[in-house]
Amino acid sequence: MPISPLRWEEGELFLLDQTRLPEACVEINPRTLESVREAIRALRVRGAPAIGLCAAFGVLVGVREKAPRTVAGAVRAAHESAAFLATARPTAVNLFKSLDEMKAVADAAANERTVEAFAARMEAAALRMLDEDLAIGRAIGECGAPLIHDGDGVLTHCNAGALATGGYGTALAVVYRAHEAGTRFQVYADETRPLLQGARLTVWELAQAGIDVTLICDNMAAQIMREGRVQLAVVGADRIAANGDTANKIGTYGVALLCRAHGIPFYVAAPISTIDPATPRGDDIPIEQRAPEEITEGFGRRTAPEGVKVYNPAFDVTPAGLIAGIITERGILRPPYEASIAGALKPL
Length: 348
Ligand code: MRU
Fold this sequence. Notes:
Layout: E1 6-9, E2 12-16, E3 27-28, H1 33-41, H2 48-66, H3 71-85, H4 93-108, H5 115-144, E4 153-156, H6 171-180, E5 186-190, H7 197-208, E6 213-216, H8 221-226, E7 232-235, E8 239-241, E9 246-249, H9 252-262, E10 266-269, E11 275-276, H10 293-296, E12 315-318, E13 325-328, E14 331-333, H11 337-345
Parallel strand pairs: 4-5, 4-7, 5-6, 7-10, 8-11, 10-13
Antiparallel strand pairs: 1-2, 2-3, 8-9, 9-12, 13-14
Helix pairs in contact: 1-2, 2-3, 2-4, 2-5, 3-4, 4-5, 5-6
């Protein structure tokens, strides 16, 4: 794939620093657990699946940094690293699921004879997760692409593209696959205040793929719907509760409400792993609160008076009742979601 937010090469982690996009395409090479956590926390790497993948490789970074002398010490180091990385961000369930997976691999590799053999098993597991993510993105694209027709306008919010995953996307996988299939359509990308993932990232990666994309401010969505420019909205997800309520970037709920008001289908695209059966309803999803400065002096320029009170939740929850379908690698889940989600979570 042309764009990947992260790579693992010769035992080192490289992240495309997304805070520098679109002006500069710069990689960072975090070599400590602290710097991996900082990269996730500061959104140098962001998007639910990409955060999960980064954390999986971050465990490898942590084990190496702790330089264990025994396999038992390496297992301990893996668990400690996972516990530390789990504090990076609270909402995207992919972070916790991939850390759980790495802990399980560490436990299973406890019988290895050397620390090197243990590390090789851990590395293979993280690389497999990356490969799987790419395959899942492709499958989501296959399932969702038929929803887009010639002449359609497709609205998306935030960035659920290559940059947010192993390299193909979820919501944008649908867009990429439809484009590959020769469908002619246009994407409207919400700017996505306050951190502008839509303007800085979605528009950047879609333009590189040759996809017709138009940037709008978040508060223009209602008007372009009224003008008849949007036939479909598709967004990603950070966590989907067992009843289908979906947490995604702040502003997503508003898009879903606007779609309902205009009779436009609103879709969520996400891997099955983004569904959290341990979270019964959207109200149970922890919502990350971020620094006031993201709003008052985003990107280094003060745009609000000093000392103003700020509320800055990074995500909101769209009630399942507003979602026309959840596009997964195993097909499109439809309401009632309790049943379709329970079915999708059954082991194959
Ligand atoms: O704060 P971010 O940029 O990590 O938020 C990202 C989103 O909300 C994405 O839409 C979501 O993680 C899905 S990514 C495939």
